[in-house]
């Protein structure tokens, strides 16, 4: 009997414990949380509408309260995830939303003195954007063949993010000039044209929007059905118009472009992307800052350019592919040593195309392997660090990978880089490819690296692919090429300007008087830089110490600039 009682008591105890656990178990879903995730646009004049996105808004407009600072706003429409609100007079910041018993604070907002003009879809007729408006790119904005988009000096254009695409395709704001169209964006040193992020000052970052893309009819070396990268769509065709004219980019800044559309390779849009752009196009005085991919990339074409600035890019500064054969003079790159790309960032990355050389037996037709990528760059200055170069990943400090080379020349390229200086890169020249491709181009003079100073590097020259270190070094060190290696310990003797690496103030890239970079006898003259396009500049790098071509139109603090 006692045994039965004890078992009964134990069963009652277990049953009670299970009941307790069941009583404590909570099968209810968490209550919805009120949040404000974005405001678009982040700057607008009073009397216009903005869209506030978030969660758990009341679906009846009057059941929400929105304040811009201390000023209440009128709510035009409401869903559980979006409120369309009229900006009140004397609007302040921050923007707060109250609904369903909670209050949430949104991103910074600023009142704009200029009307904000949203732009989306395709521009099919001649159009002018004026400096008394701010233009807001939503999704891919195409300028169709036969149309010219003219942008007045001093005009501000803001690119929206993927959530601002009115078509719901998650395409970030991108300006695309199609074949047969023109972009006439001629700013001045006093009134540059600025393409920038739609986000407020202090909140802008790499890849906030797409960028600027020009697509022309000059030759490239890919098949006619080749599509542009970045999801832009369309085909490049088999045009052969080397003097094609896609318009003008002069005194233009492009900031915070380079959006990554997916995690796949080649899915990004660059700051400035040029597909088959012809030599009739004018490009000079262009600064690309904080690009989420390359700052400048040329895919074929013949267009020439002068006075380019690549500032704090994420991947490469100057990337040439698919048979680009133009000429570029005077360019400067300044990098953040803590931010590099997973693909390993370079100043120059130059390819003919992905395979380099066509497979045996494949004919090299006009759009299938030829022309070779064979541009000439002269007077380039590239600054990474005055400290110890590092090949360590930057992923813990804001980047996603590591730095590699000042010049990564690969895949059968025939690029020439002349009278230039590269400081602080882990590698100077990486000559990469096959003996019948890249090395053959170097040996026969198609590819030239001349009058180049590699300073403060871990490895000045190396071979890769089928090219040995000895072959690469023999090429680079030939006396007639006048190339120089400056060891890290000897860097002070190069007499660089102390502000060449400035990231928290306006940099100054002009070497000090007496620098070997300024000695005319150290520079290459004639040959490829004897072409009439090139300004006589018998010195190494982009600056001679007296002519500051950056003055007036550049901006080295775009994260905190008020563009309203």
From TrEMBL:
<dbReference type="InterPro" id="IPR013783">
    <property type="entry name" value="Ig-like_fold"/>
</dbReference>
<dbReference type="InterPro" id="IPR014756">
    <property type="entry name" value="Ig_E-set"/>
</dbReference>
<feature type="domain" description="IPT/TIG">
    <location>
        <begin position="35"/>
        <end position="103"/>
    </location>
</feature>
<dbReference type="Pfam" id="PF01833">
    <property type="entry name" value="TIG"/>
</dbReference>
<protein>
    <submittedName>
        <fullName>IPT/TIG domain-containing protein</fullName>
    </submittedName>
</protein>
<dbReference type="InterPro" id="IPR002909">
    <property type="entry name" value="IPT_dom"/>
</dbReference>
């Amino acid at each position: 009997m006692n045994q039965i009682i004890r078992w009964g008591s134990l069963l009652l105890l277990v049953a009670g414990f299970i009941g307790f656990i069941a009583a404590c178990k909570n099968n209810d879903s968490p209550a919805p949380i009120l949040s404000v995730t974005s405001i678009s646009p982040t700057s607008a004049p009073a009397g216009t509408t903005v869209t506030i996105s978030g969660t758990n808004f009341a679906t009846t407009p009057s059941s929400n309260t929105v304040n811009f600072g201390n000023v209440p706003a009128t709510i035009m429409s409401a869903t559980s995830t979006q409120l369309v609100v009229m900006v009140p007079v004397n609007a302040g910041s921050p923007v707060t939303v109250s609904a369903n018993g909670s209050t949430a604070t949104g991103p910074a907002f600023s009142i704009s003195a200029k009307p904000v003009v949203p732009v989306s879809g395709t521009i099919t007729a001649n159009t002018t954007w004026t400096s008394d408006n701010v233009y807001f790119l939503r999704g891919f904005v195409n300028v169709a063949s036969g149309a010219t988009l003219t942008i007045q000096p001093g005009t501000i254009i803001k690119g929206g993010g993927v959530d601002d695409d009115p078509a719901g395709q998650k395409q970030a704001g991108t300006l695309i000039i199609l074949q047969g169209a023109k972009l006439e964006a001629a700013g001045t040193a006093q009134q540059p044209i600025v393409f920038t992020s739609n986000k407020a000052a202090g909140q802008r970052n790499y890849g906030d929007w797409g960028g600027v893309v020009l697509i022309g009819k000059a030759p490239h070396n890919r098949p006619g059905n080749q599509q542009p990268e970045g999801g832009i769509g369309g085909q490049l065709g088999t045009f052969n118009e080397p003097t094609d004219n896609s318009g003008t980019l002069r005194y233009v800044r492009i900031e915070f472009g380079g959006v990554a559309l997916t995690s796949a390779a080649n899915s990004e849009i660059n700051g400035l992307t040029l597909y088959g752009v012809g030599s009739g196009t004018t490009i000079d005085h262009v600064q690309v800052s904080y690009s989420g991919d390359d700052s400048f990339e040329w895919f074929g074409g013949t267009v020439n350019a002068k006075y380019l600035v690549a500032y704090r890019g994420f991947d490469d500064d100057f990337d040439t592919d698919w048979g680009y054969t133009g000429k570029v003079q005077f360019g400067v790159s300044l990098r953040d040593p803590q931010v590099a790309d997973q693909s390993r960032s370079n100043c120059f990355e130059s390819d003919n195309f992905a395979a380099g050389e066509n497979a045996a037996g494949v004919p090299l037709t006009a759009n299938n392997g030829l022309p070779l990528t064979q541009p000439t760059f002269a007077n380039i200055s590239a600054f990474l660090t005055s400290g110890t170069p590092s090949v360590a990943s930057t992923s813990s400090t804001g980047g996603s990978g590591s730095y590699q080379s000042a010049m990564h020349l690969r895949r059968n390229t025939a690029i020439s880089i002349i009278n230039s200086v590269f400081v602080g890169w882990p590698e100077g020249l990486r000559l990469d490819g096959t003996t019948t491709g890249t090395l053959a181009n170097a040996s026969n003079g198609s590819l030239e690296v001349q009058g180049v100073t590699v300073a403060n590097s871990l490895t000045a020259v190396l071979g890769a692919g089928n090219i040995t270190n000895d072959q690469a070094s023999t090429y680079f060190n030939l006396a007639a090429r006048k190339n120089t290696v400056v060891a890290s310990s000897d860097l002070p003797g190069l007499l660089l300007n102390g502000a060449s690496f400035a990231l928290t103030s306006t940099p100054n890239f002009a070497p000090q008087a007496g620098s070997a970079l300024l000695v005319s006898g150290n520079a290459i003259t004639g040959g490829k830089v004897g072409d009439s396009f090139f300004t006589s500049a018998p010195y190494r790098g982009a600056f001679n110490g007296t002519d500051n071509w950056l003055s007036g139109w550049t901006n080295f603090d775009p994260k905190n600039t008020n563009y309203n």
